[in-house]
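Researcher: I'd like a candidate sequence for this fold, 205 residues long. If you have to choose between options at a position, lean toward the conservative one.
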């Protein structure tokens, strides 16, 4: 297994529609194993194949304590009204914003062995943000990033700071898409940006 380089916003693979997988081979199974390792190394809740430069309809995600892979995923049911919650993305690291998503979805697809699978995903105490995550990852496969759906005034940098009691906290600072792109392009990130080390190295290299 290997940790794969994560593509950062601005990379054209992230805005391309990924293609369906018609045969699941050893190559797809290796990709999935590597994607799971990469997601865990970056402490992510989900990772889509385009984020590691592979334009195929595959993603991995966490649902509570479980980790699953889905190939050619499709949302077959959306339930409940849409709720607004905080979201981030490993391809737009150090940033969060609010996005409206369905709180419960049913998603189907195939697992890494080619077996048809179906998952009920819900944002709740047991599953975490599984429903939001599935919607976010399927958007990746369609070349859509959450930042395009976010409420613009909620777009924020995450900065690690020390509060008055000496506690380490993460504070939000309002930003814009233009400022985020310019900061990544400069290859110099704020020293206290809240970002996994593997992603900081990737941007600053
Ligand atoms: Ni993402």
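Model: Candidate sequence:
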């Amino acid at each position: 297994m290997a940790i794969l380089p994560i593509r950062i916003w601005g990379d054209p693979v992230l805005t391309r529609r990924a293609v369906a997988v018609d045969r699941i081979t050893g190559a797809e199974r290796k990709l999935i194993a590597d994607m799971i390792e990469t997601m865990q190394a970056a402490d992510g809740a989900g990772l889509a194949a385009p984020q590691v430069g592979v334009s195929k309809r595959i993603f991995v995600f966490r649902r509570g304590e479980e980790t699953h892979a889905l190939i050619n995923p499709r949302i077959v049911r959306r339930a409940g009204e849409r709720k607004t919650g905080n979201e981030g993305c490993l391809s737009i690291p150090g940033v969060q914003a609010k996005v409206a998503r369905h709180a419960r979805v049913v998603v189907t697809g195939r697992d890494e062995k080619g077996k048809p699978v179906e998952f009920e995903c819900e944002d709740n105490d047991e599953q975490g943000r599984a429903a939001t995550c599935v919607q976010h990852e399927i958007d990746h496969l369609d070349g859509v990033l959450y930042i395009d759906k976010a409420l613009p005034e909620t777009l924020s940098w995450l900065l690690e700071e020390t509060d008055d009691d000496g506690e380490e906290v993460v504070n939000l600072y309002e930003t814009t898409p233009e400022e985020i792109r310019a900061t990544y392009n400069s290859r110099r990130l704020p020293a206290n940006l809240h970002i996994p080390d593997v992603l900081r190295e990737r941007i600053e290299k």
